[in-house]
Amino acid sequence: MKEAKNMEWTDGVGKALSTLGSVISKQEKARHDKREDYFSDPMLYVQDLNTGTSVLLVPDDNEGGKTKGRGYRRCSSVRQRIGTKVPPKLQVTVLLDMVVGMLVPKEEDRMGPLGEAAYNRIASAMIEAQSAENWLKENGKHASKVNEIIEKLQDMTWTERSGDTLLNMKALKMEEAVMNEKEILEAVGRPLQKEVTQ
Which domain, by its residues, includes 136? Predict the structure, then answer.
């Protein structure tokens, strides 16, 4: 709907329509199951009463794509795999505490020279590794085991996310401020359906 960017709109119209759209979208979600995949053809008439700008929002002529020629499609929710969300700082904290803890005598509260030296050495190596692209390959003595642990830390987990919403609409500038149903349908190339009487 790039056509609307060259039209004259009052400041705040975009935000107002966005807020309204959010409310309407919540209403739509409440009507449908999240596993449902559905289509529709929205037709809207929007007018800025300050500037007189008015547009008709209708499905585009494009027949292909994921919308299959329809104006709107909401896809069903999908399950996807993502990395386990363990904060980097927590990972480092746990590893440091456990590694150095192995060097300190059991049930010992104080930090001896060996433990202090281990902390300092690990901290120095981490700082050095930040600026060395292949630090593990060049300096690591247990690369395969380290990589195995890293893979466990970055293990994948399943999560569910909302389905995509796809729009295939265009904005037609309307010259007349007021249009009847026949004129609107003629503007978008759709015939007026005659009412069937018994």
Answer: 81-159
The tens place of each residue's pLDDT in the chain, 198 residues long, gives 777 888 999 999 999 999 999 999 999 999 999 999 999 999 999 999 999 899 999 999 887 789 998 999 999 999 887 776 677 788 778 877 777 777 766 665 566 777 778 788 888 888 877 776 677 677 777 777 777 777 776 666 778 888 999 999 998 888 744 556 666 666 666 665 554 444
Cβ neighbours for 83, distance < 8 A, ≥ 6 positions apart: 154, 155, 156, 157
In a domain, 152, yes or no: yes
68/15 same-domain check:
yes
Total of domains in the chain: 2
Hey, how many other C-beta atoms are within 10 angstroms of the C-beta on 92? 13
What are the beta bridge partners of residue 80?
A: 159
Asked if residue 155 and residue 85 are part of one domain, the reply reads: yes
Same domain, 34 and 99: no
